[in-house]
From TrEMBL:
GO terms for molecular function: DNA binding; DNA topoisomerase type I (single strand cut, ATP-independent) activity. This is DNA topoisomerase. It comes from Nitrosomonas oligotropha. SUPFAM superfamilies: Prokaryotic type I DNA topoisomerase. It catalyses: ATP-independent breakage of single-stranded DNA, followed by passage and rejoining. The keyword Isomerase applies.
Amino acid sequence: MSKSLIIAEKPSVAADIARALGGFTKHTDYFESDQYVVSSAVGHLLELVIPEEYEVKRGKWSFANLPVIPPHFDLNPIEKTSARLKLLSKLIKRKDIETLINACDAGREGELIFYYILRHVGTSKPVKRLWLQSMTPDAIRDGFTRLLDNSAVESLAEAAVSRSESDWLVGINGTRAMTAFNSQEGGFHKTTVGRVQTPTLAILVEREEKIKKFRPQNYWEIHGTFEASKGIYTGRWFDDKFNKDKAAQEAKPERLWEQKQAEAIHGKCQGKPGHVSEESKPSKEICPLLYDLTSLQRDANSRFGFSAKTTLGLAQALYEKHKVLTYPRTDSRALPEDYIATVKDTLLSLENTDYGKFARQVLASGWVVPNKRIFNNAKISDHFAIIPTSLSPTKLNEIEAKLYDLVTKRFLAIFFPAAEFLVTTRITRVENEPFKTEGKVMVNPGWQAVYGKSVKPDDQE
């Protein structure tokens, strides 16, 4: 009986697939049923190398031997994972395996891992693609009912190969050129260059130079305390003729750069009456977009102090291990236009959780409707925004729970109406010198209610 071989990117994902499909017998490093064989890579199993006949040894790293642009690249097994590569090669070559299913992570890197394995083995067996947005058992089973033809993701694999080879070319040629330059006066001074490493280092160096060149400069501000019939308020002096100058980035309308001028205004206004003009305008603040990985990392850092690496690790665990978040390595902040029903199902699954009050309010108010700011196919690349799945989280540790809460609240808040405020600007002129006082009063919390904000009673304002 013919079977399909499913190759995942990690052993844990292979085990999840086997559990979701059911009926498997476990063997050493793979699972087998009547219909499928499931195994996995352990990340990258192969690495690019230059063909031996084009290699230039270290002692000959000179400008005369540059650039190094081989007509093609070879692949070498990575030593520590060579046993896993041999197992996959053996499984791919089995006579009862007719079809291969690429179940590596649904992204460019997953395509590269699978493509290199196929290239190494040299098989021509047909390939299907399992493309998952979440790791819940239902999502896995649903994914197998709608496998993609490999042709649908070939361009992604080609982009991955192009990126991999360009990394190699930039790294090798740049490193050898800089090493040759720095070794001209003798010795061997290896100087590494990388497509990402070098520009990142340049940004850091440029920033460090700005810090070193920065010279503190004193400035003065004038704050006034005013008494009115309804109480005391404060205001800050500002230059109402101020024009922003890109060349003077530190200049602001409330800053005075000469102490004498500040003292003169202070003396002029001290103890004098003021004339007040006031303007109130309504304003609205809409909820920020759903999270992609970068915005999630930024918020997790500002709120919890998590590093970008920590946030990625937590999001990956919430996706793979706990299965409560969708795929985290995304650059999209929108959802597919046909995802409205799935969103409603997810909201229903939140009804009996701590988020139930807001989930019920969204559903009862009919706020899940077509909206290009939320549901927009044009804003989606390989994956959509990070949102919770329909599974309820259990056994999350403290920091995992914090990140899950961040994503789930944003998911709920995006469907709420805008928060409404009344913004009041009061200008108090004393001896024709303006002092500004600004106030912002919440009229309707809108989406900010999800984050615990509410309208204060009048006696608390």
